[in-house]
Amino acid sequence: MTEINRYHSRPLDVHRWSDHPEATKLRETVWKDYFSDAFPPIEGKGNKAKSEPKKQFKVLLLDLYVAWLDDPELSIGLGMTKSAYKENPRYNALFISAKMIDVVNQAYEVGLIDKETGSEMSGMTTRIRASDKLAAIFSKTDLTLFELTEEQPNQEVIILNKKEFRNDKERTIQVDYEDIDFEPIIEMRQQVQQYNALLWRTFIDIPTREEPVIEQPYWDKKAREMKIRRVKLSQDNKFVRRVFYRADWNLGGRFHGGWWQSIKEDWRKQIYINNEATIEQDYSGLHINLLYGLQGLEPQRDPYTLDNLLGFTDAEQRKIVKGVALMGINAKSPKAAFSAFRQDQQTGSVEKSMTDKQLQLLLDAFNEKHPAIADSICTDKGVELMKVDGRITSKVINYFTKKNIPVLTIHDSYITPHTHTGELRRVMNEAVTEELNGFKINIDQEGVGLDQIQAFRNMDRANASDHNYNQIVSYNRTEGYNNRLKQHNKWLLKVDN
Fold it and tell me: Is the distance from CB of 12 to CB of 76 less than 8 angstroms?
């Protein structure tokens, strides 16, 4: 194998587990040959037994296997100091502890993993991946992602985060809490768990992809360079959590997770749910319009269109204004907003070189167009508004989950099978009007759903034909996609029986 690329990695999944006989057989085989002498059995009950090395090794082994299935060059990042392990059952249901350090060291000593040591100074954890020796063992097992992905009912889905600085580097950590700290927690957890259970049984894929992966360029703000993000369209990349920020239950509450949140709009258009084409709908200028609605004012149809000020095309200027305004909602000052805007732009772009003076001109024009909400710009309002859009999304998701209809969320937009497009629009309207005491926010939609077509035909069959409203966008299905669909249906049949 080649040297480990530190940047081509993901964190260790501390919840990786399977009771499938093949998974246990794999663990027993490797443990007997390479670990049994180094780790004698632990007697006893409770957390000590739960976190015994043999159990932790199974988590590590299975996650190495999943990474190897994804990409043999993909590495796993994990801490190799005791401070990196906290036996907090809320976020660590399998009780992964500092004993993992000994397990990793043993795996390296016997040649089962390649390792690149990390350090606190670099801000990077140690990277490991399956060696050629372990890869040879992996190649003999028939385990699939379906056997390695469970509903994970014990994995926490309500997350309380905060940011902290260590060695001058910012990082996000998970904050422990009690269920009594915030009254809705228990109900929220049940709702998200039910949603994940539905996603777990749902086939979500892109029919034009021969392999279940999308590689797309993105601008890495920290590294300040273009990189390639590799997104898996797989069974183990659908788990969703609801996240609150800054250790405050009044801030955030958005839904995070699911591979569809990591791909661009052009790819999202091609998503099929249970082998059915989909339509995405989103609220126009959601946070801007929430500021209007929460003040009892009528939301704007298009808040980002201004008179041409800097010689860009109207479309180019609108894109810049939208970026500056959204950064302004989330920033504490204009200077911070402008800095964040430029950081988000690609090196060499015109937007990257825009001055504070130019951006201030656009921001002033935006505030002049929206005097009613100008006082909310550059005052760190975004994280408060995320609580509102989190509640809206919760209403949408819960409605469809109860009806056993999968819906995918990208914060302010939602994807449903095209047979439920009109129903989604109605529910989106109901959810936002409930939050805004009767006001609606315009909903953007590209394409038309089958249920909408039928409704239109019922009103005016001739006009429906004239406007070609009988056309549903569809995509050719690759052989790889068809095989994945067959495999999913075969697995689901086993689960149901």
Answer: yes
Q: Which two tokens stand for residue 226?
A: 């273009």
pLDDT at 369 over 90: yes
Say which residues have a Cβ less than 8 Å from residue 338's Cβ, sequence separation at least 6: 324, 327, 356, 359, 360
Query: According to DSSP H, which parts of 149-298 are helical?
Result: 185-201, 265-268, 286-294
What one-letter code names the amino acid at 118?
G
Average pLDDT, the chain: 90
| SS3 (DSSP) at 3 | coil
The answer to whether 345 touches 351, Cβ cutoff 8 Å, is yes
What average pLDDT does range 484-492 have in this prediction? 95
113 within 8 A of 64, measured Cβ to Cβ: yes
Tokens of 137: 């063992």
Which residue type occupies 77? G
Whether 466 has a pLDDT exceeding 50, the answer reads no
Q: How many CA atoms lie within 13 A of 413 on its CB side?
A: 18
How many Cα neighbours within 13 Å face the side chain of 485?
17
What would the DSSP string read from start to end of 46-89? THHHHT-HHHHHHHHHHHHHHHHHH-TT-EEEE--SGGG----T
> Which of 12, 15, 220, 1 minimizes the C-alpha distance to 126?
12
DSSP summary character for residue 397: H
- Report, as an integer, the average pLDDT of 56-62: 95
C-alpha distances (whole Å) from 300 to each of 303, 376, 440 are 6, 16, 10
- pLDDT average, residue stretch 208-226: 83
Q: Which residue has the tokens 């926010």?
A: 441
- Give the C-alpha separation, 50 to 87, whole Å: 11
Residue 93 reports pLDDT greater than 80: no
For the ranges 79-83, 136-140, 346-350, the maximum mean pLDDT occurs at 136-140
Tokens representing 139 are: 């190649």
Q: How far apart are CA 37 and CA 195, in angstroms?
A: 44
What pLDDT sits at residue 255?
A: 98
Q: Positive or negative CA dihedral for 307, 313, 314, 315? A: negative
Measure the CA–CA gap between 435 and 313, rounded to whole angstroms. 36
Question: What's the rounded Cα separation, in Å, for the pair 2 and 73?
Answer: 8
CA distance 189 to 176: 15
Structure tokens at 11: 């964190």
pLDDT of 339 higher than 90: yes
